[in-house]
Amino acid sequence: MDLLFCLGDILSDFRRLFNEQNxxxxxxxxxxxxxxxxxxxxxxxxxxxxxxxxYWSFPKFLSRGQWSADAVxxxxxxxxxxxxxxxxxxxxxxxxxxxxxxxxGLHFFRNFSYQKGGVNQSKFHYGHEFGALxxxxxxxxxxxxxxxxxxxxxxxxxxxxSDAVLKRICSKILPGLIIFDxxxxxxxxxxxxxxxxxxxxxxxxxxxxxxxxxxPAKRRQRGRPRKYGDRLDIRRLRYNDIDINAKSYxxxxxxxxxxxxxxxxRLVVIRxxxxxxxxxxxxxxxxxxxxxxxxxIIEYYQQRWQIETAFRDAKQHFGFDAYRLKSRKSIxxxxxxxxxxxxxxKLIFSTRHATQKMISVLEVCQHLGIHWYRPGKLTQxxxxxxxxxxxxxxxxxxxxxxxxNSQNINVSVQEDTPLPFDKAA
Length: 425
Fold this sequence. Notes:
- It is a single chain.
- By secondary structure, this protein is an alpha+beta fold.
- It has a domain at about 1-110 and about 125-180 and about 305-360.
- About 35% of the residues lie in helices and about 20% in strands.
- It has 13 helices and ten strands.
- It has helices at about 1-10, 20-35, 40-50, 55-65, 70-85, 160-170, 185-195, 295-305, 305-315, 330-350, 360-370, 380-400, 420-425, and strands spanning about 85-95, 105-110, 125-140, 145-155, 175-180, 200-205, 240-245, 245-255, 265-270, 280-285.
- Strands 1, 2, 3, 4, 5, 6, 7, 8, 9 and 10 form a ten-stranded mixed sheet that branches.
- A hairpin with an 8-residue loop joins strand 8 and strand 9.
- It is globular and about 80 Å long.
- It starts with a helix and ends with a helix.
- About 30% of the residues are buried.
């Protein structure tokens, strides 16, 4: 029950964004996303929300309600940043497969999982693509990634294309470090992030080229000063063994320049040797924040993968890809509320003052009757199952406290009262 009170307390921070009726529907959506046990469609969210309104209030809240999904995301980001001191941004894109033809913004994209023998099997899907922002936060024991902002992308319109969505998100968040995958290693992306005061941390592609810093000229020469020095050969760098999280890595680091970015970057190269008969393999990441230490750079990028699992959890437990809506505004609002429900579910378990006592994995498994599964930390599936159990208990208690005729029946029987079958005997 403490978790439910904590969830309601956090939702009160969003009160100023809605009028009274819309705030009640907002709370109903969040509880419906968490409590539903199906795919998370709009109908299932309404049935599990416990709302006393009619069903049509839910689609009207998404299509015609006077509220902003971007403002909801901004309040969520500020709330999480206030709870955690060490945080960075993670940006990535995801897809949602759809089957209808009346939804706004549907387009085809290839599914490369059908490739066999290096040849694509000409199988395509159509659906929606989303640009999503996650907030990676560190506690005393582990890292948590909270999905906080998501926007629909459509290549057909300039307003909703990939770079436009990223620009809109970067312009409305506090300056910080943004972690990208190597698919975003483009000059246009990095220039945009740097213009809004952010630092970047990205993995380099296999064909990326880096240059040494130019040596200062001995005497003044005509023309502009050199910006790029000689081409860098990562095989000739000096590698040292560094222990990070009880694991040894062979790492080299150097401040270099690249044509993907206007600023100087710190390049970190990890070298490993999987087989003696094979050559070395190199893993390269670079960042514009020259003050970051090498172990921190490696740890940040190792934790970037959590945004992929956050997409999976949002689709599996919170109905991220189960919307049945037609307009761009309704789709954006639905998936944003799904992200809010996923983040709040993780937030109330990961902060110490959310409850008086931190809930352990053993306590959750014992409450759910699970004796065959003992993970090292709480997974999103265990969090959702525990919250649903608490909601079911609260709902049952509320119904049992009502005055019904069944509670007024006296079922006690005295020992000396003759029973009918005693007479028959």
